Amino acid sequence: MKLILVKPFPLNLKKSKLKFSITVTLKKDVLDPQGKVVLNTLVNMGMDNLKNIRQGKHFEIEVDEVEEAIAKNKINEMCKKLLVNLIIEDYKINRIK
User: How far apart are alpha carbons 15 and 84 in whole angstroms?
Assistant: First the structure.
């Protein structure tokens, strides 16, 4: 009979996934031609009770992290470095439960 040693997979019980929603919008002072086109098109389709439309972006990001504060800091860095043009855009980070 041959003895076989099996190395168990390490259980990483500490890590859990946290999910965040990032909403990116143009700053209020920045013109939004795409939002204006959508507004005009909807008005031409008979939806004339609209006052204003502004377009934006939406991201959902899931990270392997236990601490919400650390995960939020990582998401914030992602936004500053790539996802958001800080000159013309604002963003909000919200945790998805």
Answer: 27
pLDDT-wise least confident of 16-20, 41-45, 85-89:
16-20
CATH (one of 3.40.190.10, 3.40.50.150, 3.30.43.10, 3.30.1280.10) for 17-96: 3.30.1280.10
> Which sequence spans correspond to the domains of the chain?
17-96
Looking at the predicted structure, is the pLDDT value of residue 64 above 70? yes
Task: Give the bridge partners for 56, in sequence order.
Answer: 25
Interior angle at CA 77, CA 72 and CA 80, nearest 5 = 125
